Amino acid sequence: DLEALYVFLNKPVSAEMVHYLVATTASIISYDYPSPPQSPQHSATPSKRRPSLYSFIHRLIQHSHVQSTTLMTCLIYLHRLKQVIPPNSVGMSTTHHRIFLGAMLLAAKYTNDSSPTNKHWTTYTDGLLSLREVNALEIEMIQYIGWGNLRFENSDLIHSLSYFLEPIKRKL
Predict the structure, then answer these.
(1) What are the recorded GO MF terms, alphabetically (predicted)?
(2) DSSP letter string over 108-148?
(3) CB distance 54 to 23 below 8 Å
(4) What are the φ/ψ torsions at residue 30 (nearest 5 degrees)?
């Protein structure tokens, strides 16, 4: 298991990893789609469109230059968050984006000596979230996961990454 883990953690970030992160993030909480409006809504300023979760995560990865190790730590935090969020919880249109960013932000800060600041993360969201929202996300994530639960062991990585490790183990 450890040998497969080391092989995996040295791989570059792939589209498959991003798709897996999208699926994991989306599984944490359901999103209540709004009813269509009865009449067209006009606004003096056009609202910013919410990007797909895949596009959002891909953009964060590109701009923050995170490595596979940080992304997989993020995956551990997503799994831990899923354990504490009530199963009947329903989110708004940006809930999945916020959940992922919160987990990614904590993972980057926990695994790297030098990581992007919250101001940088705000920029990487391309206007979807404000600095105040990013700061609040960080605090909320720590409250949900628990400060002591940011730490993890190799066994946590092996469990969270089993989807990726099984094919590697078959080749070893």
Answers:
(1) cyclin-dependent protein serine/threonine kinase regulator activity; protein kinase binding
(2) HHHH-SS---HHHHHHHTTTSS-HHHHHHHHHHHHHHH-GG
(3) no
(4) -85, 160
Which structural domains are found in the chain, ordered by start? 2-28+50-171 (1.10.472.10)
120 within 8 A of 101, measured Cβ to Cβ: no
- CA 55 vs CA 27, 51, 62: distances in Å: 17, 6, 10
- Residue 55's Cβ-count burial label (10 Å; 0-12, 13-18, 19+) is middle
Whether the predicted pLDDT of 44 surpasses 70: no
Give the model confidence (pLDDT) of 66-108 as tens digits: 988 899 999 999 999 999 998 888 888 899 999 999 999 999 9
What number of residues does the chain have?
172
